[in-house]
Amino acid sequence: MSDAGDYKIIWNETINLIKKETDEQEFLAWFNLELQEANEREFTVSVPSMFYLDQIKKRYQAYIEGKIEELIGKRVMLNLVIRDKQSETPPENGEKSPEIVSFPPKTENSAPVQPSRDPHPQLRTDYSFETYVVGDNNSFAANAAQAIARNPGKAYNPLLIYGGVGLGKTHLMQAVGNYVHTHTDLKVIYTSAETFTNEFIASIHETERSKAAFKNKYRYADVLLIDDIHFLQKKDGTQEELFYTFNALSDSKKQIVFTCDRPVSDLKDFNDRLRSRVGQGLNVDLQPPNYETRCAILKKKTETLGIVIPDDVIDLVSKNISTNVRDLEGALNTLTAYVKLIGKPITVEIARQRLKDVFASPRQSNMSIDIIQRVVAEEFNLSPNDLKGKKRTQSIVFPRQLAMYIIRDITEHTTTEIGQEFGGKDHTTVMHACQKIEERLISNPSLESTIQRLIRNIKEYSAKS
Ligand code: ADP
Ligand code: MG
Predict the structure, then answer these.
(1) Fewest beta carbons less than 10 Å away: which of 65, 165, 235, 430?
(2) Does residue 269 come out as left (phi exceeding 0), alpha (psi in the -120 to 50 range) or beta?
(3) Residue nearest ligand 1's atom 9 by CA
(4) What is the Å distance from ligand 1's center to 168 Cα?
């Protein structure tokens, strides 16, 4: 292996291998990579943006290095760089990959732009991309949602946005709907899984005609948004109906977006065919925002509300409320009401006093479950989702039990709440985990120092975030 041509061949071959192994959507989305330089030790490959760079590092770097190794029999480093915009070659034969979208994003849909369309009756107009603050915690989901809004039915189908309460699932899903509704004449339908269920049940008991009306309502959507599908657990009949609706829509390349409070793999009593169809789409998660993103969200909201909250108050709220955006908004509403009443700017002292109960609640103790899961997962080279999942291999079970034990030890959460945060496990599982760790502590006293070290890391991490 000596000249540049050889390296180019190896690279092309690597990409071919990857293309064969990955799903088409995934390949189009992520493998927009160009070889820039190569030598025996290192392949330098360019990507379209910082966002890609981060994601590819996280998700695919080791995989790609592995593929090169398969071909040439030795390990080389993959060095990722951001592509110079001018030298960028346009994508071939119309293939589009998602990119960070600037607003307003370009729409490729056939329908003309209709800026004067009335607001969509089922969507909140304030749930738009413009009002959605993008941070590390949600950039992947936000980019996917924007890609879909530009190209419904073409980019990723279905899209599943999942994550805990108040993290912006509904907002992001409705932003897709609002964007499509204002920029095209496509038919957008938004519904909650609960409403879908109620309508389905009502339709069963009615005439053939109203049954058909129910089916048609959803099957003629161009973009169907169904919120909170965890609600469908145990509702076999509705799941089945949704499965058919889903198939009808995806066969005709209509866009479907779901939200859920957990990964589909963690849903209980859920139709396997539906689970697998949803799983085959793009599944993206929302994490709680970090300190900087929390500040940015509060700033944006105060601007929208047209009220002035001094920076030191924003800082105070962001430091003390780390759970989710809904709680942040709740605190902001309390302050806004006060400012309006008093008619002068709020000070840190007053804010602290107004929000003291909120700040003191165990949920807001900065050691959030999420951070503990992250730190423990990292220690064992796992992801937080491994801890929340169901796998029972020893390499996961022990870290999972340890995380539960630490949460029980240093937070006020009940075993039921802890179980919930581990993919909806029962409180007895948490109690069992704590007992197991206590037993281990007796037989292996050095575990105590590991636990103490982890707790220190968690505290440091909390102070930073
Ligand atoms: P979920 O559906 O995940 O429970 P929501 O979408 O209802 O959460 O979000 C809760 C509140 O927080 C909403 O008012 C939403 O506008 C706001 N919100 C969530 N994430 C963001 C964000 N990234 N930027 C701005 N506002 C957000
Ligand atoms: Mg919601």
Answers:
(1) 165
(2) left
(3) 168
(4) 3
